[in-house]
Amino acid sequence: MGLWIAPLSNSGSLVGSRVCAECWVDGVGEGAAKACGSEIVAGALVGFAEHKAPAMKAVVERTSRALTGAVKATKAYIDGDLEMARTAQANAVAAPSGNDSRGR
Q1: DSSP letter string, 9-61
Q2: Whole-number mean pLDDT of the chain?
Q3: Does this model's pTM top 0.85?
Q4: What single-letter DSSP state applies at residue 92?
Q5: Is the separation of the CB atoms in 29 and 49 below 8 Å?
Q6: Cα separation of 29 and 73, whole Å?
Q7: 16: phi > 0 → left, psi -120 to 50 → alpha, else beta; which?
Q8: 5-12 — which CB contacts under 8 Å span 24+ positions?
Q9: How far apart are CA 80 and CA 95, in angstroms?
Q10: What's the confidence (pLDDT) of residue 33?
Q11: Residue 49 φ/ψ, nearest 5 degrees
């Protein structure tokens, strides 16, 4: 099964990014048992996975928060660029203040 992180949603936040520790452990155990053919090695890997599952969950949650923050920052930057462009366009077509239309 392995580690699963959902893609970004349209709202700019990560959905389903929490790791299912049991799923991760089961995936490691199944993969190890199939790959190595040794129950002892598979058992050791499952024990390792169970021990490290909280740390893996913390890594995924921290990564999720970092990516969500980056998406929000990028969206704010783009929104600011669009607002600045609207203002520049409005100023470009507006008549100059304090001057008549003859440009004196």
Answers
A1: PTTSSB-S-S--HHHHHHHHHHHHHHHH--HHHHHHHHHHHHHHHHHHHHHHH
A2: 75
A3: no
A4: H
A5: yes
A6: 39
A7: left
A8: 5/60, 5/63, 5/64, 8/67, 8/71, 12/68, 12/71, 12/72, 12/75
A9: 24
A10: 64
A11: -65, -40
Tokens of 37: 């053919």
The Cα 23–Cα 46 span in angstroms is 11
Q: Are 40 and 24 in contact (CB under 8 A)?
A: no
| Six token digits for residue 56 | 């893996």
- What is the distance between the alpha carbons of residues 7 and 14, in angstroms, rounded to a whole number? 6
- How confident is the model over 28-50, as pLDDT tens digits? 556 766 787 777 887 888 888 88
102 DSSP 8-state letter:
T
Report the distance separating Cα 102 and Cα 86, nearest Å.
26
Residue type, 20: C
Nearest to 60 by CA among 10, 11, 30, 15: 15
